[in-house]
Design brief:
Number of helices: 10
Largest sheet: 10 strands, mixed
Strand content: 25-35%
Helix content: 10-25%
Number of strands: 31
Radius of gyration: 28 Å
Structural class: alpha+beta
Distance between the termini: 59 Å
Length: 598
Amino acid sequence: QVATAQASQALIRETYSAKGKPTISLEVTPLFAQLPSSGYYPLRVKIINDGKINRKWTFAFTSRDSTFGGDKNELRSSFPVECNAQSVAAVDLLVPLVSVLNYDYDTSVELDVEVSAPPLPGSRETISTEFHPDWPSVMCSETIQSRNGNALDKAAAGSLTAHGGPSHPGILHASPTFIGGLEFGSSFNPKSMTDDWRAYSGYDACLLTDNDWNALPVGARSALRKWNRLGGALLIYTTNAATDLNSLGLEKDAAGATRANLGWGTVRLQSFPDSGLLEAEQTVKLVRDAINGTGGHRARNLRSNFQSHWPLQSAFGEKTSHLALFILILVIFGILVGPVNLFVFARAGRRHKLFVTTPLISLGASAVLVVLILFQDGFGGRGQRVILHEIGPDNTAYISQEQIARTGVLLNTGFTTSEHGYLSPIILDDSRWARVTEKNDGGNGRYNVTLDEDGLRVTGDWFQSRSEHGHLFETIRPSRGRINLVRGTGAPAINSTFEFSLDEIFFRDGNGEIWRCGNVQQGRNVSLNPSNEQEFSAWFNQQKDRFGQRNSLRLELSSNRRGRFFAVSSSASGVATLDTLRWEDPYTFLTGDVPSGN
């Protein structure tokens, strides 16, 4: 059964008990009406167990990028939920979704939901959302959706190209072609939103009114602010002309401000008409412009950012292959198993020896090939990572890690990340080593993810033997690392609280002047030396060009902000993934505002 999810309406509702017996019931409610094309999908589970024994429910999910024909990428996950006797269990499940990496048009994303609690009968539903690779995943409050949904759906569909992608990867372009069935955004009830930023990680933009914003639970408001700083486009329609970023708690000392770039994201305030009816085409353009300003929507970036001229892949280098040796071995094998075997080892009168010599020759050739493969590829493999590290307010750090690895023979492909976050494969250029490419619809991979206490436990096709893989990992972590300004007059002096050293640092002060120094150690006050715009620009562009398109743009947008530092480190640790690979020390670019004092 395929269902269309409705926010705040139960997807599964079961009552298991017979008449006259204690009540056992289950409700599974989506927090959003549509699936995003990557990230997580939050489901709210409520179980009432008035029975006399403790019970355990298992929720199994299969996420797939469903297309018409061909194989599909799949991601599986499961969650146990226990409900003791005479009690109620209420939990939010963050269901990992497969990233839609194929280029098919008129496709959909699907999520199979299976619930079991033997000996009680099981339940199953499938949620499906139509997807177009040139339209982002948008959250839209019920206030806006109820009055504008149909008009926005038509305007969004009419702005897309039915065949062929946009000319600039990651950037949306308008076209008069109409795409039927596409919906503008996924509706949600602000009062029921979760306080985990990962629940919003698959969405590119959020539209809501200032009343909706104020109706959000405190934790949900904080989570949306984090999502916004991680690259989301937050569009708030105001019902009061006096409403500004300061009054909404989005930016301090921003009285009268109606737009800002916060971290890697953007916030824009728009006047909400008294009728509640938005101009549909203008709204679609507003969403498009806001998302383009943050580097384009995630789904297209995962497909396009890393295919051509990805700096990390270029720096990683190409794999050399001893193809001539393999050809030589095959030629020798052909000679041995053919004429030599037939006319020497099992010549006329001794043909029965073919039953012995042929297997022996084959085994010998196979052994030589295995030795050659191990000699060429070895066990494990190696990888490189580049990390963009943004210092945010409230002791938070925003991390975007790009990584590439080339594997040899792997005895175990499973791993657990060192922290929670958003993990996705990315499409690479076609090659004999790449396993996730445009040609094979994103690899037709089978992925498994379990949300452990400390990180993501993953198995499946994240890494395969003798392959090349790229991944993107993004997270928000608590951090007290920062740069403090300890002397602001004359030549500035700074103090670093990072646990690792900074190889080089530039600082643009409040007047726009540029300062620099090298080898900044934790806890030591360091005086900065004068620099200039030309020197900084040359250095900054060199660092920026190490990243993929989206992270490069994120850096570019921050380069002119005053009161901000820019630094690089070769000793900061990255997010751990497959530890059997030889990971080189990651390159980390750090940036953030510089508060005065300790």
